[in-house]
Amino acid sequence: MKRSKRYSSVFAKVDRLKQYILADAVQLMKSCSTTKFDETVEVTMNLGVDPRHADQIVRGTVSLPHGTGKSVRVLVLAKPEKHKEALEAGADYVGLDDMAEKIMGGWIEFDSVIATPDAMGVVGKLGRILGPRGLMPNPKVGTVTPNVGQAVREVKAGRIDFRVDRYGILHVGVGKVSFDVQQLVDNVEEFIRTVLKLKPSGAKGTYVKGITLSSTMGPGIKVDKAEILDRVKS
Fold it and tell me: N or C: which end of the chain has fewer CB within 10 A?
């Protein structure tokens, strides 16, 4: 396959067999970003779990210290008495029956959905639309809550939801290439620390098999797993 000069020059910088300590991996990743847009920094974790078993599904939320670098459009589905609280916290859209009708009509102009428990009778009808897009509110990740103001502020500040895929792999955006090295290191460490706390009791053997860092259009850079795990555990 013929590769572009940009592709070849960028990939030549990375030793595909080497595992880099996190700070060096971040610096290398930044040097490999040559696009004209601010690429997302992504962490991939290969976990020793079998998601076919319910007790081995790794799912949770994490509030990144420096946010994600992206603007998140938040929809709150709640009864009228919660609308003011949601709007004051920064929600972009607030409603219930009216918003549900719009969604049923094909409107999906939002990135996160927060609902109150008493609104789930309406929200449940949207499962076939929101579920496949990863937008269905869930109490396990804090998106079904009576405290909508707090939930909105956390999402806006950089709280992300994650769930292992069917192959036992997590793919999560943890910032932008424009972040400085220490900001990205802090965000990656907080994410990994959270994943370690969520280790399922049913997982046997090695829990974290590998960690890779990349930008949207950049090469995957292997992170020294032992070094970072030892650091986040201390």
Answer: N
* pTM, entire model: 0.79
Residues 15-68+159-233: name the CATH superfamily: Ribosomal protein L1/L10, rRNA-binding domain (3.30.190.20)
pLDDT at 9: 74
CATH superfamily for domain 74-157? Ribosomal protein L1/L10, domain II (3.40.50.790)
Distances from the Cα of 45 to the Cα of 53, 68, 166, 177, angstroms = 19, 18, 13, 19
Give the pLDDT confidence score for residue 21 in this predicted structure: 96
pLDDT at 28 over 70: yes
